[in-house]
Amino acid sequence: DSADMVLADDNFASIVAGVREGRKSYDNIKKFVKYLLAVNFSEVFLVMFALLFRMPLPLLPLQILWINLVTDSFPALALVFEKQENVMKSAPRDEKSVLSDIWKFIIVAGSLALIVSLAVYLIGMSMNLPVELIRTMVLTTSIVFELLFVYVCRSEISLFKTGVFSNKYLNYAVLLSFVLHLGLIYSFVGGYFGVVPMSLNNWLVVLPFAFSGLVLFEGWKLFKKKGEKY
Predict the structure, then answer these.
(1) 8 A C-beta contact, residue 120 and residue 129
(2) In this structure, are residues 126 and 220 in contact, taking their beta carbons and an 8 Å threshold?
């Protein structure tokens, strides 16, 4: 009982297996926290901006709940199925907070998410679009941005190296969440959430902003990796 470690099967290989599983669990928790904190603050500051300047609310409370439902459930949970083949090659971590290595990432990602949503909101206002359509565009931008950004949080390695299809559960989760959102805005259910159908022109405004997080952060990974060679 006084031992720091007890081997129930008298096999030293169990120590290696235990360390491997512990590192996997820690990395999965870190990815989960990294993703959720990075994308979940923008809505609050977006609403605060509108209130400060006495503008129409960019998102309704029920719409914010919908964002959390479709982005914080299946995609976030699917991160635990990431392959971690090199987990034993990393050095032992120091005793420090799980946020110590990722807080800068969270601030930058959260700021970008806010800028993206705010840009779509202001564009919609400048075009004098109906407020219900503007909210639908902001809602869709936030959801697609977060669904794509989960791929950024998979690994520190570029998506081009890890592979888009290496985690099939994540792909299924993202696809399911996107289909659920399409079902919301193109069915009668959308009326209960204060959203309206979007036209092709509306999608052309939304998609470039929604893809910005994935493009910028994956581009930074490639740039950083290239810089390490010299």
Answers:
(1) no
(2) no
Task: Quote the CA–CA distance of 84 and 149 in Å, as a whole number.
Answer: 19
Concatenating the DSSP letter of every residue in 153-217 gives TT-SS-HHHH-TTS-HHHHHHHHHHHHHHHHHHTSTTHHHHT-----HHHHHHHHHHHHHHHHHH
* Tokens encoding 20: 């491997």
pTM listed for this prediction = 0.86
Residue with tokens 């120590």: 15
Q: How far is CA 101 from the centre of its chain?
A: 17
Q: In this predicted model, what pLDDT tens digit does every residue of 3-41 receive, in sequence order?
A: 677 777 777 777 777 777 777 777 778 888 888 888 888
Q: Please give the Cα distance from 106 to 38 (Å, whole number).
A: 4
Write out pLDDT tens, residues 133-173: 999 999 999 999 999 999 998 888 888 787 888 888 999 99
